[in-house]
TrEMBL record:
Residues 1-21 form the signal peptide. GO terms for molecular function: serine hydrolase activity. Keywords: Hydrolase, Signal. It comes from Mesorhizobium amorphae CCNWGS0123. Gene3D superfamilies: alpha/beta hydrolase. This is Alpha/beta hydrolase fold protein.
Length: 283
């Protein structure tokens, strides 16, 4: 090989390695949700003074999917496609999120939990498994604490039980910033009050400043079979806090999803769906 071609080969290798180094890891990405399957039933449930959007898919033992803060039900499209093959899957937009309306009543996890319990009543579902992401996981823990008779299992991903479980570095994280930006655009397209995103964020932020605030003693009273779940690169929740939650809840299973972050259901949809299904269907 001539000196020129040797130099050219070295240049190609350096270029390829640099491009690889600059490529984003899966956990740094924020994929768009898949297209939501056609629901068997959808509409608005009148609960606690709001109109709560919901959709139902498939048949079998029920599974309720609850999205995270600023999000909406369509984020669960991949999980709905998988779980609805063997389960009746219910999704909804939390109050003020997506297509659901809100009131001036201050946000709180107890209130949001009561919205979902009222939705289950409206749909005549006595008991369900629950898969919750971020705020959705916190709502699931709230229900497990106060209404365990309504749950068969709880799969709580990227949740926290005290405000100091949140990593302050999330405020400067680019993936999280992209999620907030996308959520604002989705809100304008989906909401009945498309010009009120800033007011909605300000309202729910008051809850995030002080809630949740559960003690180890309270967590120790949970009887619902629970999985505490996190991506191994979660931007928002400290790993030690996730491990604390798993140790504080009796019999809880700790599941760490590889090469995934706070947005694991979008980054690793197949692995996420299978992990949830395996836990929900475990004997």
């Amino acid at each position: 090989m001539t000196r020129f071609w040797k130099a050219f080969a070295v240049l190609l290798l350096l270029t390829a390695s640099t491009a690889f180094a600059l490529a984003e890891e899966r956990w740094q990405t924020l994929p768009e949700p898949a297209a939501m399957p056609k629901p068997d039933q959808s509409g608005y449930a009148p609960v606690n003074g709001i109109q709560m959007y919901y959709a139902v898919f498939g048949a079998g033992d029920p599974v309720l999917l609850i999205h995270g803060g600023l999000g909406h039900a369509d984020i669960w499209a991949s999980q709905v496609a998988t779980l609805s093959k063997t389960h009746k899957v219910i999704v909804a937009d939390s109050r003020g999120h997506g297509r659901s309306t809100r009131t001036e009543q201050p946000y709180g996890y107890d209130l949001m939990a009561s919205d979902y319990l009222a939705l289950l009543d409206y749909l005549k579902i006595d008991k369900t498994a629950l898969v919750g992401w971020s705020d959705g996981g916190i709502i699931g823990i709230d229900i497990a604490l106060h209404h365990p008779e309504r749950l068969t299992r709880l799969f709580a991903q990227a949740a926290n039980v005290t405000t100091d479980g949140v990593d302050p570095g999330v405020m400067t994280n680019k993936t999280f910033a992209a999620y907030i930006d996308r959520s604002g655009r989705d809100y304008k397209k989906m909401s009945k009050t498309p010009d009120q995103y800033d007011a909605f964020v300000a309202q729910i932020s008051h809850m995030w400043e002080t809630e949740p605030a559960w003690t180890k003693e309270q967590l120790g009273k949970i009887t619902t079979p629970t999985a505490i779940v996190a991506g191994d690169h979660d931007e928002a929740i400290k790993r030690e806090h996730t491990e604390y939650m798993a140790s504080a809840i009796p019999g809880a299973k700790l599941i760490i999803l590889p090469n995934a972050s706070h947005f694991a259901m979008l980054q690793a949809p197949d692995e996420y769906s299978q992990a949830a299904l395996d836990f929900i269907d475990a004997k």
